[in-house]
Hints:
The structure holds two protein chains of two kinds.
Chain A: H1 2-15, H2 17-45, E1 56-61, E2 83-84, H3 85-92, E3 99-111, E4 120-127, H4 131-134, E5 139-142, E6 156-160, H5 161-168, E7 177-180, E8 183-191, E9 214-217, H6 220-224, E10 233-234, H7 247-256, E11 259-267, H8 271-290, E12 300-303, H9 305-311, H10 317-346, H11 349-357, H12 362-398, H13 401-404, H14 411-438, H15 441-446
Parallel strand pairs in A: 4-9, 6-8
Antiparallel strand pairs in A: 1-11, 1-12, 2-11, 3-4, 3-7, 3-11, 5-8, 6-9, 7-8, 10-11
Helix pairs in contact in A: 1-12, 2-10, 2-12, 2-14, 10-14, 12-14
Chain B: E1 2-12, E2 17-28, E3 33-37, H1 44-51, E4 59-64, E5 67-68, H2 74-84, E6 85-88, H3 100-111, H4 115-128, H5 144-157, E7 162-166, H6 174-189, E8 193-197, H7 201-206, E9 209-214, E10 217-223
Helix pairs in contact in B: 3-4, 3-5, 4-5, 5-6
Amino acid sequence: MFAYYMHLAWRSVKRTPVISSLMILTLAVGVAVSMTMVTLQHVMSNNGLAEQNNRIYALQLNSASTGPASSTNTLKNGLPYLLSYRTAMALLDSNIPEHQIAMHRWAAAVSLQDNRVKPSKEVIRVTTKDFFALFGVPFIYGKVWDKQADYDAQYQVVLDRPTNERLFNGENSVGRSIQLNGKPYQIVGIVEEFAPQPSVQDLSQGAFGGNAGIYLPFGLHRALSMMPYGTMSCSITGDNIQFPTDPVEQYNFILQNRCFWLQYWAELPTAQSKTAFVDYVTGYYEEQRKNDFFEREFKYALSTPSEWLELNGVVSNDTRVMTWMALTFLVVCIINSIALLLAKLLRQSSEAGVRRALGASRSAIFSQNLLESGLIGILGGVLGIGFSQLGLGFVRMLVSRDEAQVVYSDAYTIAITVLLALLASMLAGCYPAWRISKTSPAQSLKSQ
Amino acid sequence: MLKMEHIAKVFRTDTVATHALRDFSLHVKAGEFVSVTGPSGAGKTTFLNIAGLLEPFDGGSYQLDGISVHGLSDSQRSKLRNEKIGFIFQGFNLIPDLNIFDNVDVPLRYRGFGRAERKRRIEDALAKVGLSARAKHLPSQLSGGQQQRAAIARALAGEPAFLLADEPTGNLDTTMARQVMELLEQINSQGTTIVMVTHDPELARRAQRNIQIVDGEVADLTLRQAV
Lengths: 448, 227
């Protein structure tokens, strides 16, 4: 009977093109507005590291100074987003985490010695070697640099697959070199692309700006006096403190002072390792507090990737409110559809009366009319996908370039769009279908 | 075939209770052709609706082909209606945007027959009423007499034991009315029980038995010779 009902539904849609089109349009607009906002929220709240929840943690410490000169970037929990160099180096000495990394963002002009590729400025991640193991980034060729490269200047580099394809057509380029700011770096490994959206591992440049295709050993930053590209804040108590203007002096300043510019992640796979690491951090903090490096009471936060996204406010309250408003709009569209569908179906009550007389049960009439609503919903959903693409295109015009790159619907949101339209139309269709199925056949026949 | 005992039907509004049928008893045997006459408002249509399981009744008992319809669920009544009863209406009640083939198909769909069986039955029914050549026509493309014959084909396709006809010639001219009446008589001669409501005394006389309803009660039962 399903095929028969669908045939009848299609016939009915064709028979009443104006009112059917209005319903399809109403649902499509409601669904498109909702799905544009749901897609936005879905993209923002996506956690590319969800599988590592409860295994890897971002660390924050209550390391801001108490004085009036404090201007530290803090998160919702009141703790600075980043760690100082001194703290990061002390934590890296611990052997409790299975893997741990300190890292920052940098940028340099990338070229090849033979000038085959046009030089371009690229985002680079300067990190300790555990980055790949901690975030589960597999190597295609070669391997990561030696541990010593985390401390000493070794001009080595790891590229990701897209960068290697662009520079070396995807060949095994291990052993070859690239130039960064005109200086050669030997390629030691090629890894798969690691570009979670949002970039959970580094949210300091917004939700989508933390991914990189080139990785350098952490030990290089001293030799190159690398100033981090991204958020940095210094929390210093005292009068007449001036931030130096000379680049090398600036670099030394941020090394020696309470300046926060390093991200720190630790892999703590068990409750015991987590407890032991907290003890280690507590001990370090209290010791440094005695030395006046920390001024505030001990506070810390170890955040899973999901908690880190939440803490960084990646899904803003505005987005949430807009999503709820869009869903409310969808409800209004559904109510409008109910009215339109009621008008349409009640016009068909005489046919329902004839069908009842010929043997259709109430449930058969209900199913037939509900399926008609479902068909309208599917058509509304398909149109809604088109409208939501327009909506997302409009959103892309409004947001930053990084964000615009990811504001696209995927198979998941497209499936949700159609399902939502179907559900909306079925909801809208329930009452009219019930009403028409309750119509007395004797009355319907009498009225003809 | 049809056995009604002391049937009562009351239509109520807030202020008025109208007794459409009171103490209404009627037996129709299998193979009979019964006409029902009576003045307007006497209860003929109410009787037909109750007989056709389109309307519930308030008192009494009703057995259709040996099955008591009292207490049946809607789906049971619908199934019984679909299998046992064929309807012929004064206004034909064909679905306007379905062609004749698809109109005749409607009750067969609810019966759950397969495609081949439905096709066979539809073609047989249309052949029986002489409309094989009009199967793909829409109702609006047919004359009144042809539409009524299509409606009769629809009623016959399910091979019901019992045909209920409500003024089947009411919208037809004399010639077409005669043709439809002859068709009904032919169907009856093949064993189908027919109950026909009519205003026309001439048509009523052609039935084997005429029942007159006045004020919701059976006023007169006249037995005639089969035509």
